[in-house]
Amino acid sequence: MEVVTMTNEQERDYIIVQDESGLLKKFAVEALLNMEEQTYTLLRSEHDQHNAFVMQVENEEDGQYLIGIDDPFIKSMVLDAYAIAVDANPAD
């Protein structure tokens, strides 16, 4: 398993996501996790820092796509891996 966490505001990556309604929303990438031959990301909205979204990253020829995760086991697995990574490497 490979985990990449973003530790402070200067190092944090941001992405712009277009939702189903066509609205553009900005998210901070908290972490990228490579687990079981899949890539997952933990995102936080710039307007709601209290909630995070766990998404699967799909690589296609024309770009990357985020896919929602419905399986509670996978969500829990990703969040547990993120918590372990943060505990092992706390932010300064």
Structure, described:
This is DUF1292 domain-containing protein. This protein is an alpha+beta fold and 92 residues long. It has one domain (2-56, 69-88). Helix content is 18%, strand content 53%. Strands 1, 2, 3, 4, 5 and 6 form a six-stranded antiparallel beta sheet that branches. The protein is globular and about 40 Å long.
Provide a concise account of the structure shown.
By secondary structure, this protein is an alpha+beta fold.
Unreliable segments of 5+ consecutive residues: 1-8
The total of helices stands at: 1
Secondary-structure element order, N to C: EEEEEEH
- Shape, principal axes of CA atoms: globular
Give a topology summary.
Elements lengths: L1 E4 L7 E6 L5 E12 L2 E8 L2 E13 L2 E6 L3 H17 L4
Antiparallel strand pairs: 1-3, 2-3, 3-4, 4-5, 5-6
Notable features of this structure?
92 residues; alpha+beta; 1 helix; disordered N terminus; DUF1292 domain-containing protein
